[in-house]
Structures are given as C-alpha cells and as structure tokens.
C-alpha cells in the first residue's frame, strides 16, 4: 500500500469516527426533545373560592358552579357600571363573572417586602409569589433550597391596569408603582425573591399566555437551559376597563358563563 493510500485510509477512519460521534450527539439531542416532562408540584387560585388543586377536583367532581356576582372589594361602583343594554357606553351588561376572592390579602413581611411597597405591587405579582411558594412545598421542596439554582420562571400575564387607577403617583410611592404594576417585572420579582438563576420571562399572548408559558418552560428544560421550571399564569382585573371593552364587542355571555364552540354560545 502506497503512502497516499495509507493517508486516505487513515482519513476515512477519522471521518467515520467523527460521523459516528456526530450521529450519537444528534440522537441524544433528539431524545432530549422527546423526553417527557414531569409535573412535580401545583398550586392555584381560582373562582369559586378554589385555592388548592384538590379544591378544583372537588368542584369538578361535584359539578358546582364557580361563577359568582361582581366583586365588592375592588372599589368599583357596580351599580353605575351595570347596564343590560350592550350598547351603553362606559358600562358592562353582566352581573355574574368568575372572579377571584380576597385578591388584596397578602403577607408582605413573609416575602421580605415592606407594607408600603406591597401596596404598590399588583395583586397579580403578589399572588405569583404566594403560588410559587406553595408549588415548591407541593413538590416537597423547601423554597429556600432553590436559591442559586437554574430554575426558570415563565409567567403568563395579560392585565396591567393596577397602576392606571391613579392619574398621579400618590406621595411616598414614587419608585415603587411602576415596577409594581409592570408585567415584565412579574417573573423577575419571583426570580429575585427566591434567588432563582434560570430564565425569567413574562408572556402576554392574551388568553393563551399560560399555555405559551408552559410550552417555553418545557423547551427550557429539554434544552438544559433550566434544571427546574415554574410555569403558569395569573389574571386579576384591577379596574372594570376590560369588561367595558368586551361589552362593546358583545364578547361576554349575558349570564357570565363561557360556551365556547357550543350551539348556544352567546358571547
């Protein structure tokens, strides 16, 4: 065998090995993309007084209705805002809606927050902090042990009307209200409070925000970007503005119950 033939043979051997290694890496990458994702903990706040996954299961099992009357704890003049005429400006035509209860309840000291700052923080952000803590405990994880970990936060947030209740910032609250009502801060506040060092992403794709958050969390886990991921969403209407807008679009069912794709859909 000539020296040139030997060089060609050695080259082909090296290329064959490299191709085999590349194929192995590609196979491992494809396996990661198909690997199932385990859900190890859950927490929730839902209409009808539901504050645990077990509570949701019981509501579904018993066939109870979670839709209630308009909330009385948000400072809305519900009598003035209601009008059965869908075309009446500045009003909405529904009386029963699926609202969360006690959205103002919060223990700021537990999360290292001053009472003054807590007043400026959107209930949605406060609720995320509570639910993240509950989710970790549900998974059997002490929240403090997550500090410094590559845990990602993917939060769906579509309402940003908390600060809009004020035309000017109340005295003593400047520097707090902007961050407290910004959706982009919601995921970052969770990461900061719990010391998480994975991605912190707030998602607003309207009604699909939570589903997209879950999708991105799965991608982050499979790519190895995150070792653990917190995914979910939150929606609290601090003002009646969205209901007024939906009413002009005739988007709300008059009885407050969703009937998507049903023959009797009326919203």
Q: What topology does this entry show?
A:
Blueprint: H1 3-34, H2 53-62, E1 68-69, H3 78-81, E2 96-97, H4 115-120, H5 123-138, E3 151-157, H6 177-180, H7 183-194, E4 200-203, H8 209-223, E5 228-234, H9 241-248
Cα-atom radius of gyration = 25 Å
What is the CATH-assigned architecture of one domain? 3-Layer(aba) Sandwich
Please identify which CATH superfamily of one domain we are dealing with. Thiolase/Chalcone synthase
Helix tally equals: 9
Mean pLDDT, all residues: 90
Low-confidence stretches: none
| CATH fold type of one domain | Peroxisomal Thiolase, Chain A, domain 1
Brief account:
The protein has 267 residues and is mainly α. It is 40% helix and 8% strand. Among the domains are: 1-34; 53-66 and 104-235, Peroxisomal Thiolase, Chain A, domain 1.
Description:
By secondary structure, this protein is mostly helical. Among the domains are: 1-34; 53-66 and 104-235, Peroxisomal Thiolase, Chain A, domain 1 (3-Layer(aba) Sandwich), CATH 3.40.47.10. It has helices at residues 3-34, 53-62, 78-81, 115-120, 123-138, 177-180, 183-194, 209-223, 241-248, and strands at residues 68-69, 96-97, 151-157, 200-203, 228-234. The strands form two sheets. A three-stranded parallel beta sheet has the order 4-3-5, with helices on both faces. Helix 5 (123-138) packs across helix 7. The model has no long low-confidence stretch (mean pLDDT 90).
